[in-house]
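Data card: per-record layout.
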Amino acid sequence: MATQRVTFTEWTPDQPSVVENLSVAKNVCPAALGFIPLPLAEDYSQSASENLNNVFAGKFSSTTNVFAGGATKLFKLDGSTLAISNVSKTGNYTNVERWKFTQFGDTVIAANDKDKLQAYTLGSSTLFADLAAAAPVAKYVTVVRDFVVAANLDSGTNANKVQWSNINDETNWTAGAASQSDYQIIPDGGNITGITGGETGLILLERAVVRMSYIGSPLFFQFDTIARGLGCVEGNSIAKYGNLTFFLGEEGFYSCDGSTVTPIGNEKVDRWFYANANPSKLDTMSATVDPFRKIVVWNFVNNFADRQLLIYNWQVQKWSYGSTDVNYVASSATAGTTLEGMDLYGNMDTITTSFDSRLFSGGKFLFAGARNAKIVTFTGQPSAAQIDTGEIGSETPSVVTLARPIVDNGSADVAIASEVRLNQVVDFGTYTSADSENRVSLRSAGKYHKLSIKPTGARWSNIIGVDVELVNQGTR
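The structure for this 476-residue chain is written out next.
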């Protein structure tokens, strides 16, 4: 009898199942060792008057406001009652597919591809209003150094145009000798599909990636193409953290640090994504960053009309995926709540979010999103997770007799599938729970074995691997 430790390394669905890497890593988040839970999405707000398509947290000094956008309105969350009130400009809006937000100083700025850029001053505004009379109509908006930058302008009429405000003045969009406001048309690369800001700007087009760098008078900005023939296929796939911009290209997923475009899904998840994602629904994607778990999360519709999450930990360069009923993922924040305020979430005995959660810490950014007309936060109990190993064994027949799941602060249910030939259909048997000594008794014969492990326990924190006992069988 031999004991073999199977350590959970990477989920690489683009690779053959005979490799040691995992064939399934569902409803978990990658970590340096193994995987940690993916929390369930919990309702955070009351219902808005319409479904939401994006969420944004604006913070300035001690003020934290959470905003959301719908097809005809902009909303603001009341941190005391969790009600969502209409703070749109007079007359509201029409058929907005997706709102994009940024913040410049104490001003939250929103773009919708139909109206002039909208503005709300934290701490003093009561409604959004046009940012300025000369402000552009833009699909995308960000901040580069001391400038507000808009891209893909005039409802698609100028889809390859970038325009920026005067330095330190988001209300001045008039180009001229007395202003640093100006514009740039990017002649090749197709339409602009997104833009991210920072010390430099990154403009993503259908077939190019362009860096936008401030150089001062008289040109103000320099535009350098850092990737040609490679671009972003869907603007709603873009997320940024630090100096890294993540996006989906025609061939798969990439990151860019402002100088180099790096494939991050190649030979790992790119083929899996394009085989599973509904190509006609890519425009309903959303993407965000959870800095606490160091993950980028993409929400998309698969070929069965279900929503899924694709998850990437950029520090350890590992992937996982999940299922969800959340329509959009985003970043949000909370003003925190008192013990009395927890009554808003229901009876304290039935609250499923840990009281140690960032949800109850004022002003902390959260992995959030929108489910129909409500803002949600991913702060609930662990989702129903599943890890499936690659093939264990060799050409020598063997019997698996025992499994010991290695789960920090928890245990697991285990099922096994054994094959004589690799072309057999993998059919896991019934899941068996670990006993009080964390042992799962099994008896399954074959040359190749796969284990399916489902962590158990409301507070499990990390699943690292499984110890397997195998007995070689004789041959003749």
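Known properties of this structure: The chain has one helix and 38 strands. Confidence is low (pLDDT under 50) at residues 336-342, 347-362.

See the next section for split statistics.
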